[in-house]
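Hi team,

Below is the intake form for Beta-glucuronidase from Lacrimispora xylanolytica. Please confirm the fields before the structure is written into the shared record.

FORM ID: S-0412
PROTEIN: Beta-glucuronidase
ORGANISM: Lacrimispora xylanolytica
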Amino acid sequence: MLNFSELYPISNQARMAHSLDGMWKFSFDPEEKGLLEGWQHKLPDSISMPVPASFSDFFTTKEERDYCGDFWYETEVFVPVEWEKQELEIRFGSITHRASVYCNGNLVSEHEGGFLPVVAKVTDHVKFGEMNTFVVKANNELSEETLPCGTTTVLSDGRKLAKPYFDFFNYSGIQRSVWLVSKPKESIEDFNVDYELNGEDAVVRYEIMTNGTHEVSFELLDQEKQPVAKSTGKQGSVLVPGAHLWNVGNAYLYQAVMRIWDGETLIDEYSSKIGIRTVNIEGKEIKINGKAVYLKGFGKHEDFEVIGRGFNWGVLKRDFECMKWMGANCFRTSHYPYAEEWYQFADEEGFLIIDEVPAVGMMRSTRNFAAAGTGKYTGFFETPTVPNLQKAHLQAVEEMIVRDKNHPSVIAWSLFNEPETTSEQSKEYFTPIFDAARALDPQNRPMTGAFEKNSQPELCKCYQLCDFICLNRYYGWYIKGGPELVDAREAFLIEMNKWKDKNLNIPFVFTEFGTDTMATEHKLPSIMWSQEYQNEYLDMNFDIFDQFDFVQGELVWNFADFQTTEGIMRVNGNKKGIFTRARQPKSAAFVLKNRWESMK
Ligand SMILES: O=C(O)[C@H]1O[C@@H](Oc2ccc([N+](=O)[O-])cc2)[C@H](O)[C@@H](O)[C@@H]1O
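The structure came back. Fields below:
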């Protein structure tokens, strides 16, 4: 059980959400002297730092950009006297990767994990009618005991350096929006909804969690804000005759309004948009509202010039416009849960999301692509640190599902990306993770994980945990690229026929396939890294996908070029984007657009 409410902050007659986004104060703390010197009260010498944003790409020195260790943020906010009878919370969309939060010098929260909300009760520490200081002590070191996995080394000049086991830059900071929330002492802390369709009608089952004993009501409003159903009690169900369903590319959103009452007097109110739809796996098909849907889209990253992994509404808008233009209907939040605004907008746009926990780098390697596919076995789940890692993993799964469970856009949970899966120990590690996830989702969505090339049909011990199987495959890039493309095709077919022979009768989705491609390079005939090769590679992949009826989706790697750690395999980042980092199309965008539009 979480000891805080993850509900997204809103304002209404019972609650206020006050944004703390803007310019904060910031200090690096390489000597870890902050606490001893009392920085939790106030930062001594500080610089300015935008929130939300990653700190790295604002700077002009490597020491700052690549900084690894402790760093601090501070802001001041006025708290009005009118809030004195309320409960106050500070809520960060995330702090990467771990943080301690202080209110007027008092520790109010400690949180591990960089991609899910950090919420702290501050009622007993704020001064009403005065300015208040909030300070965050954060840290971005990587280890094998926390998610995502990596190590931290020390350079000869004493600086720490993050060594990710994953292929994206270790962007850090307060990368999502921050809110000061005022709500009633007795309040709505969480809610669940799930749906059953009966011909034209829908049954909406609900559960409302509060921290008190007063009466609770549940009301549904349609898109014109007209009431369509009503009930009382913390648990119940309402019938919606002639329900408008939430459909792919055609979203209809109701508003669920939940209230706590003391007789006729309102105590608390929380409302949220919900979409009535069902998700289930039936044989080889993924079904939304009982209709099979083929997933078309991308693996993405939260990544952009200057702001790094910082949330930005403009980037979100552009990305959705590009995805819609392509005829896409789905993306995977590779390799971590994204800012909540992504899910809210996907709900509005009728997009499907495979929501992924930050379990990436579970293979000992300098960036997973160096070990993935080679057959090299690193015994990742055989060290004494595994129990701690599993604890962090379970916590992230719980926080992700509690945060995202009511979004109609979320159709599946991905519980890992490319771990080792061929050992007995990997199976022992993942079994409780899947069990926990299944117990947490009131909508019983399908569970999956993304498997890399070593997870072959005859060796993998973890695909059995999944309701559908996600494959990351690079035949024609990491394996038999360029002049060997014909052999890549043969090798790909051999593997696919082995999966076919297993007769699993469940869907498969390709969650990664792609080639690094420089937007500057053209070559006839093609060579690797040219735009022409990306197109040929995609055509070869489509030819394979279309031969197997259990392939029910293709999410190309990646939506856009993105920043990674430096190395001989990366040219200022990963260039597998269908769009450049500035969100302009490579020629492959037109290849995919043609295919996806013809598949409607
Ligand atoms: O390299 C990439 O572009 C992407 O590859 C994926 O990892 C693989 C690397 C090599 C092989 N292989 O050799 O078969 C298979 C998978 C990761 O999930 C992703 O984060 C990364 O960005």
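SUMMARY LINE: Residues 167, 335, 368-369, 372-373, 417-418, 452-453, 472, 474, 478-479, 512, 557, 574, 576 surround C3G (CB under 6 Å).

Thanks, M.
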